[in-house]
Write a structure and sequence with these properties.
Blueprint lengths: L2 H15 L6 H17 L4 H16 L9 H16 L15 E6 L6 H14 L4 E6 L6 H12 L3 E2 L6 E3 L2 E3 L5 H15 L3 E6 L7 H14 L3 E7 L5 H12 L4 E5 L8 H10 L3 E5 L7 E3 L2 H9 L1
Parallel strand pairs: 1-6, 1-7, 2-3, 2-6, 7-8, 8-9
Antiparallel strand pairs: 4-5, 9-10
Bound molecules: guanosine-5'-diphosphate.
Guanosine-5'-diphosphate binds next to helix 5.
Length: 307
């Protein structure tokens, strides 16, 4: 992840280091290389434009610091602007004043929502919370069973009154049922049993689809979430940005989870999402195991890219 982008940027800065004072032409040449590196890494065009514009302006106005040479100053500016496009400060989960805190997971099918429900459940349990997972994905075959398996591994209970659609030797059986009802009942169940966090897994489709958006919006209206986390497969490249925009309009979200960040991806789309949607990246999912999960720190990610 980010290996190529990281290589390209570090070699750009290596060339810069051989210079003493930087002329405007030096800065422009550097900006051109940064622009190419970002575009090649799949960062969305408007994000690249804004990013390079700001870096150029700041580099030219040279906020002179005695401790840094000109090249180091440019690196520092790029580092700070990378942090900014990744959402700035690490944004912690917002807990409800009165529990339970409701976290809704939204995203395309296969993005990694169900897996994330288990990871987040485990993460919260380890921090003294008493989460409940609610299986409101009744669409995808075996999604309910999968959540139950994940919940068991994480040691987090699962509310699943409805088996959803099941895949059997005889083909698909069962009906999608009423996910809004399940979400509502799940919340009531959590209140009765004093779970302090409720994580609601919702259905996704393979592509953006009006019916799915409506269902997620209906669940949102039924449970009034404190956080809506948009889970996106970082491997889907530029499509991640268009999908994020569609979800931002259709359901709205308060934070982003970059899933499959362990994969072989150019990563630029992931860099663009926070900037394009104005929602911070809060977590990263980095593998299939429950422990492959990180709280996302924009500054650490920026340092990793510029290392
Ligand atoms: P959902 O349809 O959004 O609920 O997605 P799932 O949680 O079922 O994940 C889809 C597939 O991606 C499953 O095979 C998961 O094991 C896998 N997966 C989920 N998260 C990650 C991740 O961070 N890295 C990798 N490599 N695979 C993941």
């Amino acid at each position: 992840m980010f290996a190529t982008l990281s290589d390209r940027l570090t070699s750009t800065f290596r060339n810069l280091r051989t210079r003493g004072r930087l002329s405007e032409a030096d800065i422009d040449a550097t900006i051109r290389e940064i622009r190419r590196a970002l575009l090649d890494a799949d960062v969305a065009v408007p994000v690249v434009r804004a990013f390079t514009g700001t870096v150029r302006e700041r580099a030219l106005s040279a906020e002179v610091s005695g401790a840094l040479n000109p090249a180091q100053q440019v690196v520092k500016i790029v580092q700070e602007e990378l942090v900014a496009i990744l959402g700035g400060e690490q944004r912690p989960l917002r807990f409800a004043k009165r529990p339970p805190t409701v976290i809704l997971l939204a995203g395309l099918q296969g993005a990694g929502k169900t897996t994330l429900a288990g990871k987040l459940g485990l993460h919260l349990r380890e921090r003294g919370h008493t989460p409940l997972l609610v299986a409101a994905d009744l669409q995808r075959p075996n999604a309910v069973t999968q959540l139950q398996v994940v919940g068991e591994r994480a040691g987090v209970p699962v509310f699943a009154p409805h088996p959803g659609v099941q895949e059997t030797a005889a083909g698909l059986v069962g009906t999608p049922g009423d996910p809004v009802g399940v979400a509502r009942e799940g919340l009531a169940w959590a209140q009765e049993r004093q779970h302090d966090v409720v994580i609601v897994d919702t259905a996704g489709r393979l592509g953006v689809d009006a019916e799915m958006m409506q269902q997620a919006a209906d669940i949102r209206d039924a449970v009034d979430p404190d956080e809506i986390l948009f889970v996106v497969d970082a491997m889907i490249g530029q499509d991640a940005v268009t999908t994020a925009q569609a979800f931002a309009e259709g359901v709205g979200f308060t934070g982003v989870v970059l899933a499959k960040l362990d994969g072989d991806t150019r990563g630029g789309a992931a860099l663009s999402i926070a900037s394009v949607t104005g929602s911070p990246v809060m977590f990263a999912s980095t593998g299939e195991k429950l422990t492959d999960f990180e709280v996302f720190h924009p500054d650490r990610m920026a340092s990793r890219i510029l290392d």
